[in-house]
Every structure is written in structure tokens, then in C-alpha cells.
Amino acid sequence: MTTSRGTVSGLLALLAIVASAPLVAATTAWRPAAPDYGWSFPRDHWARPGYRTEWWYLTGHLVAADEPTRRFGYQFTFFRVGLLDRRPDGPSTWHTANLVMGHAAVSDFADRRHRFGELLYRETPLLGGFGRFPDPRIAWSRAPAGTDGTWTLDWNGAAFDVAVTDRAQGFAFRLATRPAKPLVFQGPSGFSRKGEGPTAASLYYSFTRLHTEGTLALDGRSRAVRGQSWMDKEFGSGQLGERQVGWDWFSLQLSDGRELMLYLLRDRQGAVDFARGTLVAASGAPRYLEPGEWRVRATATWKSPATGTTYPARWSLEVPAEGLTLDLVPELPDQENRSRLVRGLHYWEGAVTVRGADGAPLGLGYVELVGYGTESRPRV
């Protein structure tokens, strides 16, 4: 993810880009993110009712176990979108306070194809919901219409297991992860500011490097895969300010053992309105970066033939004090996720290769671009 799914992270992202937002009762009293939140793990991996939006977001790079040159990128996100700050009174199990939204994508670098699946249901016993600690199931949902099965996010005792299937889009994956490095907070004590306003913040943590293995099926052909992932969890109730319309979010796993997370929130004129970052040392210790400590500049663009939206498509990134001068190159130009369920919702969520100034490979990453195009604006 990212609120940030990056930038809000992300998924940060994206997500609560949901047009269901107007359904929220005007009297609902959402809990704001606060800097003195009392974290409790593993309990806080589960849903945090009372906050309006929440997401669990994984991205990663995978290789076929029997063909290491065959590479893929993947995204998996569950969103909890609050309709009410508490479940309505009454004995019915069909009363609901939340929506369950799921996004998943696979980029096949060899076939140059990006596939995107999605679902959106009310939280009800037959459609989807959120588990309670210590039940291993954190979130689940029926698969998209026309597909048998479920999408699931489970706690395996150390990290997260995910399962996705989408018959119409021709992909499925089942992945297990385990941490290569400990959890880190994105911002002091996990309080991640997104602006100057009192509610412009989320509660945000990451597993920046997860060993990953499992199976990936494309058009009915299943193969064993392995690789590494990044996981974000964010929750809050009002991350974006009135002038903010979207974000650029970066998660980079460098070959020297460090990770870098950056987000830039944009205003209506496209200028950077607010920005923050975290550099995670090889030891796992985070260092929080102020905007003046790093620079990112788009060096190319790509225009979607499907939506007409123009996105940044390559970036130069510098963190001088850390000796980093990086070139971020998309693995595929078209990694745009286009919703068929929420009108006007589209965003670019893509795998990138990290290179040095001399072109040498220095790592892998993911970039999320939200709020580009006149019809795509997040509501978080």
C-alpha cells in the first residue's frame, strides 16, 4: 500500500478512491490518526474499526522456479472502506459497516502484458469481511463475479499469505511470505503526515523485504515462483487535504540491502504539496527523510491508449547524503489499472528496475501514480 500507499501509500493506495464515499452517514464520528497511537503486534495486522479507510498492500517481483529468466510483477490489495464507524445495532449478521474492495494485478515481462482484477462487496457473511485477532484470516472476499473461489489475506505467524483468482482476466496466484527484515514504521511511531492539517495523516508501517514463494497461474498454466515482496498497512480517516488530488509513491529494494520509500502529494496544478520519505538501513533501522534531503524528477512520460491519461514513465532519483543517484525504469509501459466497477477510477501501479547512473542494476521496486487524468481523483 498507500493515504499513501505510498503517498499515501499506498496504496497507499489507492484506494479509497471509492465512489462509495458519499454513502457514509453524515453523523459518523471517524477516529483520526494520532501520533500517540498505542501499537500492539501482531494484533494491529488485523482490521482497526473506527477509522474510515484501511488497506493491506503487497507488491513484488517474482521469477519462475524452473526458468529464472521468466519474471513477473504482482500487486495485491485489500481495502476496508468504512460506511459507519461502528456496526449497526441489531441481531442480524447482514448489518454492515464496511465495504470490502480488492485489487490485484500481474505483469508478465516476457509477454509484455499487464492484467488487473478487482472486486467490491458489502461486508456480509457470504460476500466478504474482516477477521478478528487471533483468527489467522485477516480479510477475505468472494472472487469477482463469474469466478469460483475466494481472495484471502492470512497471517502465517511471521508474515502474510495471499490468494487471488480471476477467471475473466486469466490469472491466479497463491503466495506465502516471511520477513527478511523486521517491521518498520513509516514516520515516527508510525504516524505518517500527509499535510499540515490536523487530520492529514495515517498510521503506517511496512515490511520492506519479504521472502516470497508460491504458485502463479496465467491462462490455466501454473508454475512455481519465488522472489521478494513489500507489504504496507495503513489506516486513518482523512489523509488528503482539500488541495491535494493525488500522489506519486515509490518503494525500492536496493541490492545493497537498503530500502527506500518516498511519497509526493500533488495539488491541482500538479505541484508537490507535501512529501516525506524513509530510508531503511541494511540493519533494518529507519531514517526519516525531509523533502530537502532527496530529489525525484520525471524524465519520460507515457500516454494510456485506453484512458488518454499521461503519466510519468521514468524517474531520476537522488539522495545525496546517502550516495544514491538512481534511474527508475518501468518494466512495462502499460501497467495501468483500469476499474470496471468504479467509474473513472484508473491509476498506474507498476514494477520498475533500479539502475545506477552508469546503467548498472541496483535493485527493484514499485511505483504508484494516483490522481492523474481529469476523471480520476482519490477520495480519502
What does this structure look like?
With 380 residues, this protein is an all-beta fold. The chain has a single domain (21-370), classed as Beta Barrel (AttH-like fold). It is 0% helix and 53% strand. It contains no helices and 23 strands. The relative contact order is 0.18.
What would the keywords be for this entry?
mainly beta, AttH-like fold, 53% strand, 23 strands, 380 residues, disordered N terminus
The low-confidence runs, each spanning 5 or more residues with pLDDT under 50, are 1-27
How many separate helices? 0
As a percent range, the share of helical residues equals under 10%
| CATH fold description | AttH-like fold
Radius of gyration: 19 Å
Assign the CATH class: Mainly Beta
Distance between the termini: 14 Å
The CATH superfamily name is AttH-like domain
Counted beta strands: 23
The overall number of domains is 1
Order of helices and strands: EEEEEEEEEEEEEEEEEEEEEEE
- The helix-and-strand class reads mainly beta
Query: What is the overall pLDDT average?
Result: 90
Q: Strand content of the residues, in percent?
A: over 45%
- The coarse overall form would be globular
The main sheet comes to: 13 strands, antiparallel
Question: In the CATH classification, which architecture applies?
Answer: Beta Barrel
